[in-house]
């Protein structure tokens, strides 16, 4: 049952092409109703999972101390990431046009690293996967969780909420599991900050032309 009548009038294509990562425009001051998050999760759990196992669990964090603890872990992970050669800001340095975009991405990553603990709602999707992650077929394993995470983000976008798909916390996943009290056989797949957003401009992002990445029948 809908708890809001403010679902945006977006076509499926509009929703899919304008659900963007929101970092700097997250409203850190406006609480997010838990009922609205629940509504988004009701949509999310309609996603497919291997053998219909539905081994997902969702930790929704709104407590200030819990958010601050996760924020501290995330900030440390971001600091390490920004120093690495794989940092968004350091990619495509030989492409003048694209490096400008990458620089903006790096700046927004750094910003989120500083404020993650202040975001009013943090959603941590989890998966039951044994006390040791199995070797091989990681696509099959995480394919039973990650489509639902994306569905959650789409549902949030349709309801006026901004989100960001982040995974840098996995550098310190043991600490995250301790903060959240997760059982030994439960693993996190993402950390999704969720908040109302400022501004209203959401549009498709620049992408490489399809013909440069499309292969028919063989590479």
Task: Draw up the topology in text.
Elements: H1 12-18, H2 34-44, E1 56-61, H3 64-83, H4 96-115, E2 121-128, H5 138-142, H6 146-158, E3 161-163, H7 173-180, E4 186-188, E5 192-196
Helix pairs in contact: 2-6, 3-4, 3-7
Description:
By secondary structure, the protein is an alpha+beta fold. It is built from seven helices and five strands, in the order ααβααβααβαββ. It has a domain at 12-62 and 120-212: NADH Oxidase (3-Layer(aba) Sandwich), CATH 3.40.109. The protein has helices at 12-18, 34-44, 64-83, 96-115, 138-142, 146-158, 173-180, and strands spanning 56-61, 121-128, 161-163, 186-188, 192-196. The longest helix has 20 residues, at 64-83. The radius of gyration is 18 Å and the shape is globular. The model has no long low-confidence stretch (mean pLDDT 92).
């Amino acid at each position: 049952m809908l708890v809001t009548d403010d679902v945006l009038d977006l076509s499926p294509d509009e929703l899919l092409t304008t659900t963007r990562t929101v970092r700097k425009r997250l409203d850190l001051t406006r609480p997010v109703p838990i009922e609205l998050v629940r509504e988004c999760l009701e949509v999310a759990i309609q996603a497919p999972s291997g053998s219909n196992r539905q081994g997902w669990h969702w930790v929704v964090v709104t407590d200030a101390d819990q958010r601050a603890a996760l924020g501290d872990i995330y900030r440390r992970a971001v600091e390490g990431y920004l120093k690495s050669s794989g940092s968004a800001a350091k990619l495509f340095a030989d492409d003048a046009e694209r490096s400008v975009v990458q620089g903006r991405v790096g700046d927004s990553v750094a910003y989120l690293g500083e404020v993650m603990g202040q975001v009013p709602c943090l959603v941590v999707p989890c998966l039951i996967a044994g006390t040791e992650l199995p070797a091989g077929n990681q696509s099959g394993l995480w394919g039973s969780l990650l489509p639902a995470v994306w569905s959650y983000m789409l549902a949030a976008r349709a309801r006026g909420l901004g989100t960001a798909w982040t995974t840098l916390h996995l550098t310190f996943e043991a600490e995250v599991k301790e903060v959240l009290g997760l059982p030994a056989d439960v693993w996190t797949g993402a950390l999704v900050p969720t908040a109302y957003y400022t501004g209203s401009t959401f549009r498709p992002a620049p992408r490489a032309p399809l013909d440069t990445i499309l292969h028919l029948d063989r590479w």
